[in-house]
Amino acid sequence: MVTATRTGQQNADQNTQLKSRRKPRYIKPTQALILLSNRPEFECNWCHRKYSKETTLASHLCEQRRRWLQKDTPPARLGLEAFLEIQEYFHQNRLTRTEEDFRNSDYYLACMRWGRFVISIKCADPIGYLKWLLKNNVGIDDWSKDELYDYWLQYTVFIEDAWDSVSRSIKSMTEWAEDNGKEFKDYFRQAQTARIITDVRKGFITGWTVLCSESGCAWAESLEQSDLDLVWAWLEAPQWAAKFQQAPDTVRKIKEICAEAGL
Questions:
Q1: pTM over 0.90
Q2: What span, in angstroms and rounded, lies between the C-alpha atoms of 108 and 78?
């Protein structure tokens, strides 16, 4: 009987303790304000939003922080260059602008889109292309259009420095040779026609190399009309003939180099 009484008393004591634990502790409003004001705060340096936990701040990704994190990527570096060129061209204040100004500007997304575009197409001269776009007052939303880039290339291959062109052509032919276990001198002899046409249309191979090398001329003469139509804007014979007449010494030197290389 005594044991049963003690057991019942113990169960009653445990129930009382559980109820007391479940009962929320009353906190006066003034105490709550004090507790909240004493909580540590972790603030985002970019949007200034505050968090109570450092781990929450670490996982936070606002738009400005995202831009800061990608500031050293190739598209961002090209986008910054585009932004500075815009400022210099329209406002003549390039030197007063910073990378932070770029991240906060209304041009940011459009410049980043252009940076990704010129990287994806392996643009032969991104800054030259950018200056041409500005000079011709092309709207920034159109900077990433393939047809505009093709138009610029068709114009540029006839006016650029001959040695810049030859250097770029040799680099492209060397990359083909390394990828296929060939010698670069066999580029026009063994590369697929589609590959050469693509390289010509991208400006990697120009008339300076095609028309000043024996194998390049043989390749051009062997093209079917449909293929010739694809590259005619870049290899238009009358324009190149006029160009060569203006620089006979350069043509002679390039021909000698191509002959010595086995092209």
A1: no
A2: 11
